[in-house]
Amino acid sequence: MVKQLFQDIAWRQDNISMFGKTVDIPRLQAWYGDKNASYTYSKLTLLPLDWTPLLLRLKQQVSEFCQQDFNAMLANCYRDHRDSVSWHSDDEPELGEQPVIASLSFGCQRMFHLKHKDSRESVKLPLQSGSLLVMSGDTQKNWQHALPKSRVEKTMRINLTFRNIE
Ligand SMILES: O=C(O)CCC(=O)C(=O)O
Ligand SMILES: [Mn+2]
Question: What distance in Å separates the CA atoms of residue 100 and residue 122, rounded to the nearest whole number?
Fold first, then answer.
């Protein structure tokens, strides 16, 4: 599946400017969605690509399971153990007050970290290939999450995060 998704998705290497310097973000990304579901993320505006049959099928299965519609999906490809996503909340205004974000993982298992913004309570979840993590309610308001680099070597992991843009 990870190979199939790697080929199916139009990956891009995005960069962000940090302290006046342009740096590649440490993963590949792609943004899929219905028309009009554009998304601004770390000052980067992503126009949605059209769903492929494979992505549409996965979206429908996740929607069915969650009993929730999704109109967009951010795909992340962690090429190896050096790729990561740093601490953040998915709290952009276009996601709404209590977003439901359904995160499907394929490929190498990586550790997903959550940290409570006030109590600093932390949770680590190993996300296996084929697993679905659903974040909802006040999760984005109260918690941050990250996928740190790994000290041990890892092969590719692809993560699809289904969202709803208002
Ligand atoms: O790769 C993951 O499991 C998390 C990705 C993520 O947090 C995001 O795309 O906002
Ligand atoms: Mn996130």
Answer: 20
Instruction: Among the bound ligands, name the one nearest to the CA of residue 29.
Output: 1
- CATH classification of the domain holding 33: 2.60.120.590
Per the structure, how many domains does the chain have? 1
Give the number of the atom of ligand 1 that is nearest the alpha carbon of residue 112: 3
12 C-beta neighbours (distance < 10 Å), count:
15
Instruction: Give the pLDDT band (50/70/90) at residue 20.
Output: very high
- What is the Å distance from ligand 1's center to 53 Cα? 22
67: left (phi over 0), alpha (psi -120 to 50) or beta: left
Q: Which-ligand-closest: CA of 27?
A: 1
Domain that holds residue 108: 2-163
Record the pTM.
0.95
What residues does 76 pair with on adjacent strands? 29, 159
What is the 88 CA–ligand 2 centroid distance (Å)?
6
User: Is pLDDT at 41 greater than 70 in this prediction?
Assistant: no
140 Cβ below 6 A of ligand 1:
no
Query: Cα Rg for the chain, rounded, in angstroms?
Result: 15
3-state secondary structure of 150: coil
